[in-house]
């Protein structure tokens, strides 16, 4: 991989050592789980480790791989005590890796990507994780973006409309899927637009808030929220809706789950999470249903993009199978369709 070769170059190592105050020879390894931006763990001879993030080869949505934006959100949230990895440095010199990148501290803990990762956790700890995820999300949404220096971009009250336009535009460029599927995505997107609620409150939106984008401790505490690549300022209910798409209840019958971890005994139900969020943010949990449908549609669009990149040979470094994705895309579109 060309990106990996550049990361092994003496020039890159010199720059990384200087920016992150590392010493001696560096060991570089690609972190698992990423289908978009590439994440590397870098360790020096003193066993001091940092994380490097950079865009993938063959970027589909440039705004979704904006290293400066990711670094900006981390830099805004870390000083106010929100659990994120501490940012170290941003490098926009393309001569180093061929793309911008940034460095951050490594957050130590567990990432629950599947049931195997959670099997040794107690029932009590699993229950605690669900409530802590919601408490952390409510904390994020309580911040005034202007006080964090995160305003000045696109109109946050148009966040949902902007998301719909962006993904519909992206879908229009896809050419490895059937015309019928693209027509379905477009129809459901337009139906969601016609039912789009008015945004009453704005806040910091993570954009992909889910269990496997969070580092937790063995006791179930939230150590750090990861992957801020599509963070924005907009309608915060989009985050809880997306979490609900990924969060599987024990009795859910979706045949193609991305992450079935939360079906294990002890994890709260989706509805319990919605109720807790509603009580913390003083909203009616029934409001979240639209955002869950929107999240299902958006995730279908994201997965279409993932499959498209695989088919065109620019997978972002993840070698996991995507065989189930077409069926999952169909299920997500059905869940998103307001009929």
From TrEMBL:
Domain Aminoglycoside phosphotransferase: 29-255
Stretches assigned to coiled coil: none
Keyword Cell membrane applies: no
One GO MF term attached to the UniProt entry: transferase activity
Tree of life domain: Bacteria
Keyword tags: Transferase
Keyword Transferase carried by entry: yes
Protein name: Phosphotransferase enzyme family protein
Naturally occurring in which organism (per UniProt): Ferrimicrobium acidiphilum DSM 19497
